[in-house]
Specification:
The chain is an all-beta fold and 115 residues long. The protein is 0% helix and 51% strand.
């Protein structure tokens, strides 16, 4: 019954901003570590950012200072605020949460940064 639904992707100009959302059903984000991953065209999926139950955050070096991961417990939603976007940020972005037994993923939302 666990479902992660992502939204907020789209086409943006270099230097622009975008906010991705991941709403969960059947699982409480607030008690697990949640992450945003991305998969550029023709490349492997990579970890972008994580947030723990205590809101400790980590980021891949390439997005530090530009991206912010956050969580709204009442809405059971995790966000990824993306600023100063670059063409190399183009990818399908996925939401993830790791439970004790299962690893859940969203369907992905596409982000294209282009002039």
């Amino acid at each position: 019954q666990v479902q992660l639904v992502e939204s907020g992707g789209g086409l943006v100009q270099p230097g622009g901003s975008l906010r991705l959302s991941c709403a969960a059903a059947g699982i409480r984000f607030s008690i697990y570590t949640t992450g945003w991953y991305r998969q550029p065209p023709g490349k492997q999926r990579e970890l972008v950012a994580t947030i723990t139950s205590s809101r400790r955050t980590n980021y891949v070096d390439s997005v530090k200072g530009r991206f912010t991961i956050s969580r709204d417990n009442a809405a059971n939603t995790v966000y990824l605020q993306m600023n100063s976007l670059k063409p190399e940020d183009t990818a399908v972005y996925y939401c993830n949460v790791q439970q004790a037994i299962n690893n859940y993923w969203g369907q992905g939302t596409q982000v294209i940064v282009s002039s």
